[in-house]
């Protein structure tokens, strides 16, 4: 009776080895499709930095600046059009050459984003307690989701066409899909030039809107995977 488990193991092992062996006529392929779309989502980052010898005083200063900016931004806030949220808020020690604390540095941030680029640009001119730290255009979630369906279909069609070409080139009549991965990315979005951010940081200018130009956002869908060539 002790020989039975051993005999079973000897019979099963070759079967498992054959099952795990990859198909011999496997080919790896890649295809993609790209579309350029008008960027419709503007994200504006505003911030202030304060420096002082007392941590509590520095914290109070950046809080006051943030509160004033929030009050101004909330006047025009509207879901999907102008959305407002606070960013980082921190007070950190500043060290001298001997490793001791010589002062404190505080920073507060506010993020304003949405589709209404005119309102957001004008808001940047009315907020005088924070400076523009950065701004960038992108695609809204709705615009991306609407475009991705068509772009994905194009990428898959190109993958299938490429698979047929490869199969025929190797003398096979068809193919079977193996493991396939579909992924997407966004790039090529025009950002607001840095010179405007520097200008805003240099001196607050009431009611002067931040110049913006949306440009194009590039969305790419890639299909990568393998096929098994069949006769």
Task: Provide a concise account of the structure shown.
By secondary structure, this protein is α+β, with helices and mostly antiparallel strands.
What's the story with the biggest beta sheet?
A: 4 strands, antiparallel
> How many β strands by DSSP?
7
In N-to-C order, the SSE pattern is HEEHEEHEHEHE
Helix tally?
5
Overall structural class, as computed from helix and strand content, comes to alpha+beta
Q: Taking strands numbered 1, 2, ... along the chain, how are they ordered across the largest sheet? A: 3-4-2-5
| 3D shape | elongated
What fraction of the residues are assigned to beta strands by DSSP? 35-45%
Mean pLDDT: 83
Give the termini distance in whole angstroms: 47 Å
Structure keywords:
four-stranded antiparallel beta sheet, 231 residues, 37% helix, three-stranded antiparallel beta sheet, alpha+beta, single chain, 39% strand, elongated
What does this structure look like?
The chain is of the alpha+beta class. It is built from five helices and seven strands; from the N terminus they run αββαββαβαβαβ. The protein has a four-stranded antiparallel β-sheet. It has a three-stranded antiparallel β-sheet with strand order 1-7-6, with helices on one face. β3 (83-95) and β4 form a beta hairpin.
